[in-house]
Structures are given as C-alpha cells and as structure tokens.
Write a structure and sequence with these properties.
The structure holds two protein chains of two kinds. Chain A is mostly beta strands. Chain A is built from no helices and eleven strands. Chain B starts with a strand and ends with a strand. The chains are: A mainly beta, B mainly beta. The interface between A and B is medium-sized, with 32 and 26 residues.
C-alpha cells in the first residue's frame, strides 16, 4: 500500500515560533504537495515539488517555505508562526506522468497557533 | 482559472438508498478527475481516478463518470451504508505543462447515511 506519513498529527505552537511539518512517502513519487484545509475554503495549495531541491509556489505561499533534500521527504516550514496559520495541513504525493497521477494523502497535521 | 463546484454541499439519506454526487468544472481541458473521501479530522482517501480518455470507473458500489465536454462528473453510490458517511471531494488535474500536477479541488459534499 502507498503510504504518506506526516510526522505530527497534532501540534500546538506559540506565535512567533518556527514550525516544521515533515512528510515522507514510500512510493518513489516525483511530485509532493503541501495543502492547507480550512472550513469554507477547501484545500489550497501552499507549495509543491516535482523533484529533489525543486519547488514551486502554489496559491498561498506567503508565510511558508519548503525543503526537499531527498526524494521521499518534503518539509513545510513556518518561519514565524501566526494565529492565521492555525489550520489542517495535508501532504500529498503522486507520479509526475498524468497517466499515473492518482494523488495520495497523509493523515494530516492539525496545527494550532496560540 | 479552473473552478470546481460540488452540489449539494450536504446530503442526508436513509440507509440503502442509491445516490448521486455531482461535480462540475469550468475548464474542460483536463487530464483526469479524481474522487476522494475524507472522514472527520483525517486526510483524503482516493476512491476513483478517471483518466481523460475514459468515460467512467467502477470500484465496488462506487461508479464515477466523466463528461469533459459538459464539464461534469458524477459519483454514484449504490445501496448506501452508514459507513459511507463522510465528505466526498472531486479534483481535476490540468493539462501537464512541465513539472508538477496541480489539482483543483471542489469544496466537497458532506454525506450522512442514516439508519
């Protein structure tokens, strides 16, 4: 079975703290994505990566950065957490070619910033 | 800009009923469409993926159809069960333009199947 693992299911942080969200996939997928999900707004793409050390901004990259040093791992970084970044964060991955583009998600990381 | 709409936003049905969830998209230039299920507080689980060259896909009691020309997809659930209660989301994949495969998601239909 494909597995996308997010290291933390629940986090509580204080305003101004640096936050790392880790995601690992075991299917040798080229693409990896970070989304946030908020009630009424649906899923919004923060960043994605299609190769090691490659990254592209999604729809809402402000306040976030990412790192992809190894193919299987994609990290989301909040340099200075703010209360408006309280959200559910979802990592996903898939193959680059569209014929096998099925997207697989992790269980999500619920972040609360106080 | 692609927009994906799911109607209704919420649906409540008695157990055993057959039901249809709808998904519409504004730009028909897509490569595939995927249906997901999300349980409360959890990530998304892929249900069905319909490639651009296909018209429908089936898995167990689920059947999804795709009509690109009209910008519509439907997810048919046969003989619904309480365990089907969840939020169902559809997402469309754009024509690949080198690197990445950014999906556009609908906001989902929240389904409740009652005993």
């Amino acid at each position: 079975d494909v597995k996308v693992t997010q290291s933390s299911r629940y986090l509580v942080k204080r305003t101004g703290e640096k936050v790392f969200l880790e995601c690992v996939q075991d299917m040798d997928h080229e693409n990896m994505f970070w989304y946030r999900q908020d009630p009424g707004l649906g899923l919004r793409l923060i960043y994605f990566s299609y190769d090691v050390k490659m990254k592209e901004k999604g729809d809402i990259p402000e306040g976030y950065s990412v790192s992809r040093e190894k193919k299987e791992r994609f990290s989301l970084i909040l340099e200075s957490a703010s209360t408006n970044q309280t959200s559910m964060y979802l990592c996903a991955s898939n193959f680059l070619a569209e014929e096998t583009g099925e997207l697989f998600f992790g269980e999500g990381s619920r972040l609360t910033v106080l | 800009k692609q927009e994906v709409t799911q109607i209704p936003a919420a649906l409540s049905v008695p157990e055993g009923e057959n039901l249809v969830l709808n998904c519409s998209f504004t730009d028909s230039a897509i490569y595939n469409l995927q249906w997901f299920r999300q349980d409360p507080g959890k990530g998304l689980t892929s249900l069905l993926l319909i490639q651009s060259s296909q018209r429908e896909q089936t898995s167990g009691r689920l059947n999804a159809s795709l009509d690109k020309s009209s910008g519509r997809s439907t997810l048919y659930i046969a003989a619904s069960q309480p365990g089907d209660s969840a939020t169902y989301l559809c997402a469309v994949s754009p024509i690949l333009t080198g690197g990445g495969n950014k999906l556009t998601f609908g906001t989902g239909t929240q389904l409740k199947v009652e005993l």
